[in-house]
Amino acid sequence: MIGIEAAPVQEADHDLELATRWSAGDREAGERLFERHYAAVARFFSNKVGLGATASDLVQKTFLACLEGLSRFRGDGSFRSYLFSIAYRVLCRHYRARRRKPQHFDFTAVSVHDLDPSPSRVVAQREEQRVLLEGLRRLPLDDQVLLELIYWESITVAQAAVILETPLGTTKSRLLRARRRLERALEELAHGSLLASTRSALDDWARGIREQALGGDDST
To answer: DSSP character for 209?
Structure first.
């Protein structure tokens, strides 16, 4: 897996300063926060709802909810974790709104592929990346979210536990299970040399997707 690095302290402090100013009505500070974190939030939604109007709408809802709840952000954790927590809840509401019985929606069991069997609409430059994207979409939604946060956003397991609102021990167990499920999904999607190259260079394909197919790097 890609190494996990915490955001530099000065970046976290800068985010907190911008968030405080935004909450006080400083629109420019809000725009700077949006610019700093837009790419990451867009990546979060891209391999789940695509790159079109729905994703754009969910990104906007995430930042709006961020502003509305900003008074509750005290800087105890990183602003990025706070933002991903909101994005996750926005995503859950999006899928529940599409179900007749939303209370029965189990994000630990249903996958994006179950909801939308069409292939990922995210453009991948390599066949290995395409296989990885589709493999992630076949995992239960919570597993997909967990792996993508760790692969692409350098979120720690502890931060992921907060985002997914699960105990740390449970999140660690889910991470192991999610990796095994991804392995099985890859075996269903690829064979021979393609499967071997996808497995052997998984970190590289994941990093390549982040940089090339999901909106590129950002300042975080």
So the answer is: I
User: Which among 154, 175, 166 has a CA at the least distance from the CA of 80?
Assistant: 154
End-to-end CA distance of the chain: 19
pLDDT on residue 104? 64
What are the domain boundaries of the chain?
Answer: 9-213
User: CA–CA separation, 39 vs 216, rounded Å?
Assistant: 7
Q: Say which residue the tokens 């994006």 belong to.
A: 112
Angle formed at CA 154 by CA 153 and CA 159, multiple of 5 degrees: 100
- The CA R_g of the chain, rounded to the nearest whole Å, is 17
Q: Please name the CATH architecture into which domain 9-213 falls.
A: Orthogonal Bundle (1.10)
pLDDT tens, position by position, 38-81? 999 998 998 888 778 888 999 999 999 988 887 777 666 788 89
Distance of alpha carbon 192 from alpha carbon 204, whole angstroms:
19
